[in-house]
Amino acid sequence: MRKETGQAIHLADYRPTPFVLERVDLTFELDPTETKVESRLIFHRREGTDPEAALVLDGDELTLSGLLLDQSELPPERYTVAPDRLEIRGLPAETPFEITVTTFINPSANTQLMGLYRTNGIYCTQCEAEGFRRITYFPDRPDVLAPYTVNIIADKAANPLLLSNGNFLGGAGFGPDKHFAAWFDPHPKPSYLFALVAGDLGVVEDTYTTLSGREVALKIYVEHGKEPRAAYAMDALKRSMQWDEEVFGREYDLDIFMIVAVSDFNMGAMENKGLNVFNDKYVLADPETATDADYANIEAIIAHEYFHNWTGNRITCRDWFQLCLKEGLTVYRDHEFSADQRSRAVKRIAEVRHLKQEQFAEDAGPLAHPVRPTAYREINNFYTATVYEKGSEVTRMIATILGRDGFKKGMDLYFERHDGDAATVEDFVKCFEDANGADLSQFSLWYHQAGTPVVTVAEAYDAPTRTYTLTLDQAIPATPGQPSKKPMHIPLALGLLGASGEELAPASVSGADFADGVLHLKESRQVVTFAGIGERPVLSINRSFSAPVNLSFPQAEADRAHLARHDGDLFSRWQAITDLALKDMLDGVRHLTEGRNAAASPALIEALIATARDGALEPAFRAQALALPSEADIARALGENSDPDANHAARRAVLHAVAEAGRADFEAIHAAMGLHEPYSPDASSAGRRALGNAALSYLALAEGDPARAARAFAEADNMTVQFHALSVLAHHFPDAAETRAALAAFEARFRDNALVMDKWFSVQATIPGEATLGRIEALMEHPLYNARNPNRVRSLIGAFSFQNATGFNRRDGAGYRLLAAQILDHDPRNPQLAARLLTAMRSWRMLEPTRGAEAEKALRSIQSTPALSRDVKDIVDRMLG
Ligand code: PHE
Ligand code: ZN
Q1: In which residue ranges of the chain is CATH 2.60.40.1840 found?
Q2: Counting atoms of ligand 1 from 1, which one is nearest the CA of 114?
Q3: Mean pLDDT of the chain
Q4: CATH superfamily ID and name for 751-881
Q5: Strands 72-73 and 19-29: what pairing?
Q6: 267 C-beta closer than 6 A to ligand 1
Q7: Active site includes 305?
Q8: Is residue 854 within a helix (H) or strand (E), and if so which, with residue range?
Q9: Which is catalytic among the residues 38, 227, 271, 305?
């Protein structure tokens, strides 16, 4: 049975529960189809609440098989029960009381992967956001915190491992074939952080000694035989623990920290207290099977989940509207960690690419919502790029505005004031205000107003008075439910460059606060004058992407070229190249529709090739520059009437022109970039491989021949180089014999490795052009395709819908129909997966009319299907709303 389409939940309706939960004592008797859960809950009535108020517990698809009050049977007139709710009346007004609830659940039949389910013979739970109510009736909301004792009883042979949160209390045999284990988590936590894992797994063990000298046991559990592939994750975990001590002063607080890798998981990973559960894709890596990007993701996600121990677990969210309180902040923390472990500028470029691709797209379409929403119908649909990535950007802006020390003071106060609390965004912001004597009231609009601000820049230089004037306007587009907006506080890092690239320091600045290179835009229009500027400067604005805004600034080509060469801010050098390229691509789209050719400007070619050759720059940076804007970047810049085929053709023409012009350089780079040196996952080795791989892509375009990529594929001794070569073959030469051979060889070699086979499916799903749809249909019949495994579904259907603009957006609408059929197929089993796949169409309103009409038809066909899950219904209604 599926959840019904519900009514919206509103932030304004928040009320604390009438009962306070003191303690939780759970006993699980695990069975593949009939697990018994006995839950003993001690409550007392909250002071000052109605002495008559009933206790209401949440459920989801539950049947009650026992209910006791202080160990005695409750008469039926004292309670009302339904699969989603248990209400108990006539409870003591003053004294604490104990409720014992017994339920039986079937983990094998749980295909939603929420609550207790089975994956590869393992018992595993997922409770965020509202999965605990699928295990037992419970006040399943994040502001109900309690210490938990968990007893697990299971068949010993099949489940040598019995894990839950907190510290291990003890275990023993239990009857002839069973055993039991008890865990106690002393830190009060909400139910969404509960976890239980049982089964037979291999383990990698290590220890970490904390700042204050306590030894913590570290364990990463993986399938037997995969232990060596968890070594990098363990290394990343130890570095995360140390970094959080050094940078945020946060120490780990239990005797043991465990990570379990599972192969069926709806999301990336989950920060359950002391027992993180991970999608195995973000744990397992070795050079032969994982790419540099996989290693970087593992490092980031291990860190992210670990950092949640303080930002999320010790201080949790009062309600789900506050999700960004833990997610935005924790993404910011993992970004800073990666920046410290790797190259800050390169990391920032990658973040901004991701932010624009995901969050800017979301913010510009029908699913736009504030970082801190005020209403939702299905909370699972709010684990979004806006909450996570924009939430992180908002935190970053606080750091920019208050400076490093001011930010640290605010964070320290937050930890001090709210440890053990279920807090709100307002609580968080107040700590920064109080610690700094600052007023962040206007700034807080970033949490409440959706939409990406557009900052329009106009400049004028007056030589006689040596003044440079900037006129800055801000406008925030209308978004669903928010037709008009107030001006925001936008911190713009900027610099003025002289003719030889030096920074020009103004004698004074008027018209805006300007300090430490940051201009604070607060009004809808500000005219800012820089005095004492002796030559016409070149403006470098929004350095390091200090604010998540779109700039409307038709900067002269020569100025962009100047920045590309000289800007002291590496991010801005990348931005300048990207701006040159995007302009060429947008011109190209126009020219192609007028029957003319698309091309690359000499300015772009020169800037890009100079950057590619510049041995003083990090290879990883050079690779980022060579990546150029994506087709999605072009579509977003157009904003409307987007024709994915034209975007693709224009982009390709620009890449082709660069490839021709830089052919000799790309050959030299490809040969020099150590593609054969022994593999190490560190950032600088990865950077050399990225640059070599980028060169190979350009060479494929210049040469029009698969030979070089086929050679690279055959000779590669690591997955980063091998998989890139395979992508070049598949994407540039899909029908070549070399490509067929490489795909077959890859499949033969890796058919037993699910994570590598995911790549094999994805690389084919992302081949540009309308023929790919036929491939998708054929691949869905492949013996290794598995509609029950979320990673596999995402690798084929997700990759096609999200990452293949030309293939998915076929003019005849067949791509949309395929996705719609997939949504309806998955929805009854796994609504979360279905709803997330559907967001691939979030930008449908930007399409040209023919495709737009086809997209709308497909969406309406979904919308009119009876018995949709609440998840899919919510998304489709908003998309069409
Ligand atoms: N809280 C997890 C994270 O960001 C994400 C998640 C949400 C996982 C919901 C599972 C379910 O770290
Ligand atoms: Zn998180």
Answers
A1: 454-539
A2: 11
A3: 97
A4: Peptidase M1, alanyl aminopeptidase, C-terminal domain (1.25.50.10)
A5: unpaired
A6: yes
A7: yes
A8: helix 849-863
A9: 305
